[in-house]
Amino acid sequence: MTQIQETKATCCYCGVGCGVIVQTDGRQVTGVRGDPDHPANFGRLCTKGSTLHLTARPALQQQARALAPELRTQRGEPRRQAGWGETLDFIAQKFADTIRRHGPDSVGFYISGQLLTEDYYVFNKLAKGLIGTNNIDTNSRLCMSSAVAGYKQTLGADAPPACYEDIDHAQVIFIAGSNTAYAHPILYRRIEEARRRNPDLKVIVADPRRTDTAREADLFLPILPGTDVALFNGMLHICLWEDLIDADYIARHTEGFAELKQTLRDYTPAYVAETCGIREQDLVAAARWFGQSKAALSLYCQGLNQSSSGTAKNAALINLHLATGQIGKPGAGPFSLTGQPNAMGGREVGGLANLMSAHRDMANPAHRAEIARLWGVDDVPSRPGKTAVEMFDAIRAGEIKIVWIACTNPAQSLPEQRMVREALEKAELVIVQEAYKTTATVDYADVLLPATTWSEKEGTVTNSERRITRFKPVLPRPGQAWHDWEIAVNFARRLEANLGRTATLFPYADVEAIWNEHRETTRGRDLDITGLSYRILEEQGPQQWPYPEGAAGGRKRLYEDGVYPTSSGKARFANTVYQPVAEAVDARYPFRLSTGRLRDQWHGMSRTGTVAQLFSHAAEPAVVMAAADMDRRMIAEGDLVHVTGRRGSQILPAMAGDDMRAGQAFIGMHWGEEYLSGRGHDGRGSFGVNSLTSPVFDPVSKQPELKHAAVKILKAELPWRFLVFGWVAESEALALQSALRPAMRQFGYASCTLFGRERIGVLFRAADDYAAAPELVAEIEARFGIAGVGVLRYDDAKRSNARHILVRDGRLQAVSLAGDTSAERWLKEYLEAEQPVASLGRLLLMPSAKAPQGFKSRGRIVCNCFNVAESEIGEALGQSECLAAGSPEAALSALQGRLKCGTNCGSCVPELKKMVLARPAPAKAAA
């Protein structure tokens, strides 16, 4: 009998940093559950974290994972498998030759907030210490760099001053630019608990969309996109006017307030309400709640960060905290929620182009000298490195010849995708270090380096509240994959030899040796961890920094003594001035497009996209619009529309959303060309949502304005539709999805996603202004097994209609619909339910879309844990115990008792509450 082992680890998704207990049989991960002892989550997991084990199934890993080094020495050739020695020797020689010919700034590294801290440290030392270039940046530039700049500009260091425990002590929680219920669901569970314990706790949400987070707020401020600075300045103006500031705190612990005070004079309630598009009385209420509160905590994320004025947005919110003394005490402080699992760890080791280890500034000569001495090099380069967008611009311009991309997917995540792809085609050498070979960026790789991933890696991560967790492997490395730090170290040693260096800067025998060196760089710094060790982390569990030598433990919250890491010891008010969004709407591009997270998906979906059931809540890409905007344009639910901006266009189905304001639109950030593409309006291709987003970036943080773009939305006249869906062997599903990617580009619009639960299905959807070539249709159908004599066929060549059905063992196995696809809903649900089809007879092939008598659609899945659909919730809410419930809380409890929905991870609870509030009113008793 196989013995199940349990190992503690950390979830690899968002920056909450939840502890997980991983169950393995020595060969594969068999299950995960929340770690009840981990202080970040106390045993809770969201819908993504609770399905982590499904991403590690061997059948899926074999298709998705990069398992051996691959290289090509000439462009145009296919990559071939090669040994590690040959591959690293080739790269080292290329680097050395390029550096000799063009200088150290002719190479660049683009890395990731999903690396472990030790991986990050080695890459940073490789670029800045060995090669002598600051051209190393990270995808954290896309999510957290404005938070970094905002903290440094005001508080003096990139250090979130609050902790998760502050949620329990807060009297007011101000959520700005974050759909916390989706993006950080375990923290949102904690907010829900705090509200239950303290009915007086007020929650304010500022967001252009009425998200599930906003819907539950005591006060919702539906601000227009990009107006956050005006909002925060307006709130502080009111606090000043109504004497709600802490004058003593300002005098003793801050500087620069007089200058800001002059600026604030212009931010009158009337001006701010008009600028932000909100009611003046709501603005005043928000300011009073915040200013009068004994403890106000703000939580913020990409809505503030991903902006051409992201630093100012962060600083303006911190100004509000400083002026009211809402910092350095339980329940108070400006708390930036980190997007990625180890973006904080990357910031600690200087993973950004303008930083160095332990929060040192590249522009500071003394800081550079300190790092040079610690590393044993002559100097660290002073020339600013290229940040993310700048780096790919430089690659396209030919300034950077070689780019090394590790653990990230810029061909999905960066804005202005056309520019990014031109850059990758122009580069002389593209190296991709990845665990997953299915990402869009891998298509451009000259060298593919297979890396380990979650459940195989070893090192540390730091979450949003500065808490460091030790991460141990639970499975052996698959195939020929190496740890990220091992790849960098082995390459560095070869490069040293090629450059004629006699001593190595990389003497590490194991990952702990890297940690110990990183730890020493923090001595005397604001994030001093010289008192920490792997042993302490293993024996005592996760710890917060700072944790200096001699300390008994880490520090929960910072600045309790009012002393800040600035030259004066005082916090600095930033003189923040509102600037409109960089890309304004106009008559040509009248819609404000924003992007954001879906509940059950993560980033570019290289991991979550392997789990079919995570598509059940949002099954396919869509652009969400206000119903009034759709009505005015005669767009029906599901109609295809052109979403076109100044850089590109993408066709998508339209969906009405009651969270949308007129003139606004929303697309999930996750949909790259792996799942959504087409020929594009000019035939050059469309590559998902980031075909539309803007590369304009904040001048301080260099973070691009991914959250806002001006677009027009027009109905797409693509009369011919094509749809194929069917069950696929688990060992073939991801391979099929990847194989369909080239076919997607041959249609005006195409998408390809997974579905199912116990089994895996693939759904391919396409549309065009003419019927596709029969050969192309037959090729796609054949990949689903729809070929040969065993297929039921209906064909109407005159109308370009066809229905081809594969039946196996009396049940639907795969379906192809061309032209008229209106039978999709019931045929797909019949397939998913695996109902016998013998009773359907000719109905299977009749051109009519009419569903069988008695057929009842389940609709969208709301609760992923227990597979509970919208229709079942609606039916239960109509039952007597729910109708008779005297309050929404009682009705929710009755609903959960009946269906169990929302009783596991809780991710669906906000949506359940919304449905409860919309339930039919109970019938009045007869007189």
UniProtKB/TrEMBL annotation:
<comment type="similarity">
    <text>Belongs to the prokaryotic molybdopterin-containing oxidoreductase family. NasA/NapA/NarB subfamily.</text>
</comment>
<dbReference type="Pfam" id="PF04324">
    <property type="entry name" value="Fer2_BFD"/>
</dbReference>
<keyword id="KW-0534">Nitrate assimilation</keyword>
<dbReference type="InterPro" id="IPR006963">
    <property type="entry name" value="Mopterin_OxRdtase_4Fe-4S_dom"/>
</dbReference>
<keyword id="KW-0479">Metal-binding</keyword>
<dbReference type="Pfam" id="PF00384">
    <property type="entry name" value="Molybdopterin"/>
</dbReference>
<dbReference type="InterPro" id="IPR009010">
    <property type="entry name" value="Asp_de-COase-like_dom_sf"/>
</dbReference>
<dbReference type="GO" id="GO:0016491">
    <property type="term" value="F:oxidoreductase activity"/>
</dbReference>
<dbReference type="InterPro" id="IPR050123">
    <property type="entry name" value="Prok_molybdopt-oxidoreductase"/>
</dbReference>
<keyword id="KW-0560">Oxidoreductase</keyword>
<dbReference type="InterPro" id="IPR006656">
    <property type="entry name" value="Mopterin_OxRdtase"/>
</dbReference>
<dbReference type="Pfam" id="PF04879">
    <property type="entry name" value="Molybdop_Fe4S4"/>
</dbReference>
<dbReference type="Pfam" id="PF01568">
    <property type="entry name" value="Molydop_binding"/>
</dbReference>
<dbReference type="GO" id="GO:0046872">
    <property type="term" value="F:metal ion binding"/>
</dbReference>
<dbReference type="GO" id="GO:0051539">
    <property type="term" value="F:4 iron, 4 sulfur cluster binding"/>
</dbReference>
<keyword id="KW-0408">Iron</keyword>
<dbReference type="InterPro" id="IPR006657">
    <property type="entry name" value="MoPterin_dinucl-bd_dom"/>
</dbReference>
<dbReference type="InterPro" id="IPR007419">
    <property type="entry name" value="BFD-like_2Fe2S-bd_dom"/>
</dbReference>
<keyword id="KW-0411">Iron-sulfur</keyword>
<dbReference type="InterPro" id="IPR041957">
    <property type="entry name" value="CT_Nitrate-R-NapA-like"/>
</dbReference>
<dbReference type="GO" id="GO:0016020">
    <property type="term" value="C:membrane"/>
</dbReference>
<keyword id="KW-0500">Molybdenum</keyword>
<dbReference type="GO" id="GO:0042128">
    <property type="term" value="P:nitrate assimilation"/>
</dbReference>
<keyword id="KW-0004">4Fe-4S</keyword>
<dbReference type="GO" id="GO:0043546">
    <property type="term" value="F:molybdopterin cofactor binding"/>
</dbReference>
<dbReference type="InterPro" id="IPR041854">
    <property type="entry name" value="BFD-like_2Fe2S-bd_dom_sf"/>
</dbReference>
<protein>
    <submittedName>
        <fullName>Assimilatory nitrate reductase catalytic subunit</fullName>
    </submittedName>
</protein>
<dbReference type="GO" id="GO:0045333">
    <property type="term" value="P:cellular respiration"/>
</dbReference>
<feature type="domain" description="4Fe-4S Mo/W bis-MGD-type">
    <location>
        <begin position="4"/>
        <end position="60"/>
    </location>
</feature>
<dbReference type="GO" id="GO:1990204">
    <property type="term" value="C:oxidoreductase complex"/>
</dbReference>
